[in-house]
Design a protein that fits this description.
single chain, 458 residues, PmbA/TldD fold, 6-stranded mixed beta sheet, 24 strands, 41% strand
Amino acid sequence: MNHIEAIGHQLAEVIKGYDADYIEAHLEQSQTSRITYRGRDLESIGKATASGGNVRAMVRGGWGFVSFNNLDELPAKVEMAVKQAQFVGNEESKLASVEPVVDIVPSEINRNPVNIPLAEKKKILDEYNDIIWHTPKLQTSIIGYGDSHRKLIFANSLGSYIEQERMDITLRLTAIAIDGSEVQQAGLSLGSSGDFSLIQGLHHQVEQMSHNAVELLSAPQVKGGEYTVVLDPVLAGVFTHEAFGHLSESDFVYENDRLREIMVLGKKFGSTELNIVDGAAVPGLRGSYKYDDEGVPATKTYLIREGKLVGRLHSRETAAKMGEKPTGNARAINYRYPPIVRMTNTYIEPGSVSFEDIIGDIKEGVYAKNWYGGTTSMEMFTFSAGEAYMIRNGKVAEAIRPVVLTGNVFATLKNIDTIGNDLEMNQGGGCGKGGQVPLPVSNGSPHIRIRHCLVGGG
């Protein structure tokens, strides 16, 4: 038993002795490494370790929260969290019932990516940067690599005690091309739940990304208006996560009267072919785990099934308040924060239609791929595609400048009339909410076709 495990068992005993409706504790030991380039230059490189924890207590419906780096004097920290909760609480405490769990969950990855020498990682990134800078008309580039290994311990006053290991890797490359006043960019973003081999051997993709940035300088711009639009799995997955997934996080629903009126279970939001899922129980993805940060087992939750809204994402508290079952979606990026309702792996399930058949009857449309930005406000969204092409007479035709897609998420869901058979999961990037960013998630989709989509030039 190492030091943090010994402290974890000590803390599990300590929290049983206090007068509160509920107490939970988290301990975390982490290793991370980071490498960043800006242009030709290596901007930063290094490794770090950290350890700490938190205690969260509920009394009469009010929460107290204390985080700490010093692992000494644990009873005082528990007492402080309980006193804070006593100041706040004036209602009945509500938490959905969950069976206590005692479990140890090792990582499925044998090689800790943080232990791979920085020199080995730098050599790979140097090769990618050389490819970028051998491309004419490129003005600058940005490369960011990060990895982590976390040992997590959870205990609560109900008797749960869970040890988990989680690993994560991210890589983001951006190439920016300039010709006079024209500026265009292309990006490549990927990640994994600890498999370092997935960021190796990307030389061809990096070369293609760099050429795409340059080719966009001379690409024509689409005429704004309504088109039939086909989204690739990356952009469709981002749409699913950003435009719809956040509306399915039940803390957001519970606190917003207007959204509660819209997000009524059983309401029809799309065709019978449309199924949208979120679930950490889907194995091997960046948002996957066995237990969330409240010790609730991971699930696979249908949000939309056969076009109808059938579920949403919950913590134990939101599940109790809304009279629904917990889904294992309470997550925190680290011990400095309390868990809140977050997505995990969010995706549209595949249909049965090939890409060729999806575009086959489109006389004039737009094929939008990849992404590099977007905003959402309630049900309204605006997304920028990373690449775009015209579709003419059932074929992908000339490249055009990246397009901006704008609309109402619920109208757009109803306008999805064809779903492809080629589900892909995007593991790049991270999700932000409540100041907690970047949280490891994944999102995905097959190709989808949307009728009457508003398209503007990027």
